[in-house]
Specification:
The protein is built from 4 helices and 2 strands; from the N terminus they run αααββα. By secondary structure, the protein is mainly α. The protein has one domain. The chain has a two-stranded antiparallel ribbon. β1 and β2 form a beta hairpin. α1 packs antiparallel against α4 (about 70-85) and α2 crosses α3 (about 45-55). The longest helix is centred in the C-terminal third of the chain and has 16 residues, at about 70-85. The protein is globular.
Length: about 80
């Protein structure tokens, strides 16, 4: 199984903001790695980002998400900072 990259995570978050991917799709994708019986993610930054975005689809009411678009943009900015280091 190929490990996701920070850049791939950023791209998926941008797809959510652009309406080209649902939060549920991104959550399912991230959860696949996070919930694996034997997770094999070597990059600690990628692992932390996957844990965070696996909850992107959590609802705080029947019609609104716990994490806002501002939160998603913050995650993108934080992940981008890791790329620049």
């Amino acid at each position: 199984m190929n490990q996701p990259t920070v850049r791939e995570i950023i791209n998926r978050l941008k797809l959510v903001l652009n309406g080209k991917m649902t939060r549920e799709e991104v959550s399912d994708w991230a959860s696949y790695y996070v919930m694996a019986d034997d997770p094999t993610i070597d990059d600690e930054i990628v692992w932390e980002l996957l844990i965070t975005i696996s909850g992107i689809d959590i609802l705080d009411s029947p019609t609104s998400y716990l994490h806002s678009e501002v939160d998603i943009k913050d995650w993108i900015n934080q992940a981008t900072e890791f790329l620049l280091k």
